[in-house]
Design a protein that fits this description.
about 350 residues, alpha/beta, 7-stranded parallel β-sheet, 3-stranded parallel β-sheet, 9 helices, about 20% strand
């Protein structure tokens, strides 16, 4: 049985290497973050213990996979798939890696630090209490709030998956006092929002001069806009008005929030990470919307009147504004997994 477990462990390592090599894999950002943490964040002494006989700084993430050890092994029968499922716990040096991983929140404009928060003593039902650890720091905490839903951790992992040199350029630009030009108009290098009405650029590729740009508002179409959006991992909020397009394919971009003029649009493909789609014009649209997982994780907002999008059966949220009346009849049949209305 142990021999079989080792064979499964080798298959698991091959799957991890495949996820590292495929940037489109749903697991790519998670395994990349895991590897980067254990190579670059644990300190040189611990890294030397994790990867003996090597220079850890020169190890590739793929080479690190070979150092993983099988720690625990188990199986169960999945009633939904009606098949046996094997569970493997792979670790580097368990005596070291069993310690809690501290995630420093430094994505986008956050400074790299421990962000402390006082929360209610009662543990929420979605958490599992496994014990109590002493505080990581003796610095005072003056912030109060609720328990995290894990969204910040998700954003941090996405950030960690971006190449380090690009993250470094983002941080340097955010702190810069420099000035560049967009459309012939002086713009601060640290600018995080651009509106083509105020900075009337022709080519969207001019925006590469702004390494920490994250919010883009366009009131006309730019032919190379999609090329720019696919090349930058930081622009996650986009407004497109008066674009005049019949089809829009936003796959390969990093847009989380999209404000979109639906006038004349017949077909729309959203990217993997889009969470919000906000229609910018009043009345029903005539567009087929293609979203990952048929709308799972997507919230759609309409103005005035809604045409049910049967192509989004897993739509998570539906928001309506400026409503005079709204017919709920049949909504549950169109969007049976709706969690927010």
């Amino acid at each position: 049985m142990l021999d079989e477990a080792e064979k499964l462990a080798e298959k698991a390592k091959a799957a991890i290497k495949a996820a590292l090599a495929d940037e489109d894999s749903r697991y790519h950002s998670v395994v990349t973050f895991f590897m980067e943490f254990h190579r670059d964040e644990v300190g040189p002494d611990i890294a030397a213990e994790l990867f003996p006989g090597t220079d850890p700084a020169k190890l590739s993430f793929t080479e690190m996979v070979d150092f993983l050890r099988l720690k625990r092994f188990g199986s169960l029968v999945d009633s939904e798939m009606n098949q046996q499922v094997f569970i493997l716990d792979l670790s580097f040096n368990p005596e070291i890696t069993d310690e809690l991983m501290v995630i420093y929140k430094d994505f986008m404009y956050w400074s790299r630090d421990l962000h402390l928060l006082r929360v209610p003593l009662e543990v929420p039902p979605q958490y599992k209490l496994v014990g109590t650890l002493p505080s990581f720091t003796d610095q005072p905490c003056r912030s109060y709030g609720g328990w995290s839903d894990g969204y910040d951790v998700y954003l941090q992992i996405r950030w960690q998956a971006i190449p380090e040199e690009r993250r470094r350029a983002f941080k340097e630009a955010a702190e810069s006092d420099g000035v560049t030009e967009i459309g012939g108009i002086p713009v601060k290098v640290s600018s995080h929002r651009i509106m083509d009405q105020h900075e009337p650029f022709d080519s969207a590729l001019e925006l590469k001069a702004l390494p920490c740009l994250s919010d883009l508002i366009c009131e006309r179409w730019h032919p190379d806009l999609l090329e720019f959006l696919r090349e930058t991992p930081f622009v996650d909020e986009v407004t497109l008005l008066n674009h005049g397009q019949r089809t829009l394919d936003l796959r390969g971009t990093s847009i989380r929030k999209l404000m979109l003029d639906m006038t004349g649009l017949e077909e729309l493909w959203l990217c993997e990470g889009t969470e919000q789609l906000l229609f910018q014009n009043k009345g029903p649209d005539a567009c087929a919307i293609h979203a990952p997982e048929d709308g799972g994780g997507l919230t759609l907002q309409f103005i005035g009147e809604y045409r049910p999008h049967t192509e989004l059966p897993n739509l998570q949220g539906l928001h309506g504004i400026e409503l005079k009346d709204f017919d709920l009849t049949g909504l549950a049949a169109v969007h049976p997994h709706l969690k927010e209305l």
